[in-house]
Amino acid sequence: MYNEAIALYLRLSKEDDDKKIESESIKNQRDFLTEYVEKLNCKVSEIYIDDGYSGTNFERPDFKRLISDIDTGKINTVITKDLSRLGRDYIQTGYFLEKYFPSKGVRFIAVNDGIDTSIEDSGNNDMSPFRSVINDMYAKDISKKVRTALTTKKKNGKFIGSFAPYGYKKDPNDNGHLIIDEDTAPIVREIFKLYLEETSFIGIAKRLTNENVPTPSQSKQKLPTQKRFKGLWNDVIIRRILTNETYIGNLTQNRSRKISYKVDKKINLTEKDWIIVPNTHEGIIVKEDYEAVQKILSTRSYLRKDSAHYRHLLSGIIFCGDCGAPMTFIKESPERTYLACSTWRRYGKLGLCTSHCIRENYVEKVIRDNLRELAKELEIKKVVNHIIEENSDRELLLKQFDKLIKKGQFHRDVQLNLYKDKVQGVLLEKQFLEMQQRLIEEDKEVEYKLEELREKIDNQSSLLYQEQRIMQFLDFNKIERNALLLLVGKVRIFNDKKIDIIFNFKNTF
């Protein structure tokens, strides 16, 4: 040893329950290396410890401090218990062994691997690149096993995130189960309500920001030591909330993933890769409102170039009845806008289609009149009475559903007690198996009835929801866009000015 500028570097990837207490493994590394240095009649200048940090990532606090001290000449010898303590990424580990340490005149020793860069022509030194590759493969294998285990948990309906989705919190009795957070759930309901009332993503974000409503990121900052910052809502946050099935009780995970086990950066996954498990927890939003939002989101919107916040009432649902192309909006004056076939506008000279020119406000009036006439045909009194009947039946079904849920829980409790009795010798093995089999058969019957009730409740809820939406049009003078999109699927304009309206609910009644 020379100059006694010796640094001991200790690392452990497993996190401890209490960060203030060093793990036994870190203590063992310290004792082992301290004894090693004492046998060489040398002294340790500094000890660097990263407890709870992965070897695949070199962004570790004390490792960075070690590098800083090497750069300033404070340290010229680094000792670890083995090469994997330095790191498990063979590219980065190789960089420090082959380039950085030699360029700084630093001697590196990995005691258990017999590596000492001060010894020339050492077979162990020559093997260090291969050891790095093996350590990297080990880290990759562990990462793969962990990822597989987490995917299994996701598919089994267990929440595996560090933080619950905004509006929820982790069940204190089951970390993998979500329960409603009464502090933030009202905000989620408000976001859905505002969007259904024709408020844009940006509009909702501005409103929540101006009202100083904590963002999802702010809600995660529970400790006074955590950095506080002004929360700014944006359209990305709003869209993510509005498209998350978790809010209707269907646990939605796997929406993003890390690029690799070495890189923390995440990429968003397409919807087909999401893992969605239905009915895992209580929903914040009713299914009908969620589906209504998805329908609106899926409808194309054509925005005026001069205003990012303006949308024509019929954008995305009005088409040429002859060639099928979207109709475009031509503003003649502040009070007058015409609709024209986009094929004709782009390729008019080719004669592929005609203009189909028609006043925008005239088409809106025709749609409004059709909806009013359709509402009258449904017989208002009959519809209202039907709603009352459906509500009554639905309440009865919900009570039956709740009763079956409690029965299923009772069966699970009985099974647990039977198992305890068997273990304690109160029940014989044969008695236990017979009683358990009966409970399993009863459980199957409960599950079958629950599935039937779920379908009935969903069907009635959907019908009730559509009727309630139609009631909004019984005495209207103006159509709100979001409500229109729920009722009208498509509008076609033909060359003879004929208007064909395709309703979403036409065949329901």
- Which structural category do the helix and sheet elements fall into? alpha/beta
The poorly predicted ranges are: 15-21, 223-229, 300-309
CATH topology of the largest domain: Helix Hairpins
Q: What does the overall shape look like?
A: flat
Sheet with the most strands: spatial strand order: 2-1-3-4-5
The largest pleated sheet is described as:
5 strands, mixed
The percent range for strand residues is 15-25%
* Total E-strand runs: 17
What does this structure look like?
- This protein has 509 residues and is α/β, with parallel strands linked by helices.
- The chain has three domains: 6-153, 3-Layer(aba) Sandwich (Rossmann fold), CATH 3.40.50.1390; 156-297, Hect, E3 ligase catalytic domain fold; 306-509, Helix Hairpins.
- 48% of the residues lie in helices and 16% in strands.
- It contains 15 helices and 17 strands.
- Mean pLDDT is 76; it is low at 15-21, 223-229 and 300-309.
Write the layout of secondary structure elements.
Blueprint: E1 6-12, H1 24-39, E2 44-51, H2 61-71, E3 77-80, H3 83-86, H4 90-104, E4 107-110, E5 115-116, H5 123-155, E6 168-171, E7 174-180, H6 185-196, H7 201-210, H8 216-219, H9 235-242, E8 251-253, E9 256-260, E10 263-268, E11 275-277, H10 287-298, E12 318-320, E13 327-333, E14 336-341, H11 342-347, E15 358-359, H12 360-377, H13 380-423, H14 429-471, H15 481-487, E16 488-493, E17 499-503
Parallel strand pairs: 1-2, 1-3, 3-4, 12-16
Antiparallel strand pairs: 4-5, 6-7, 8-11, 9-10, 13-14, 14-15, 16-17
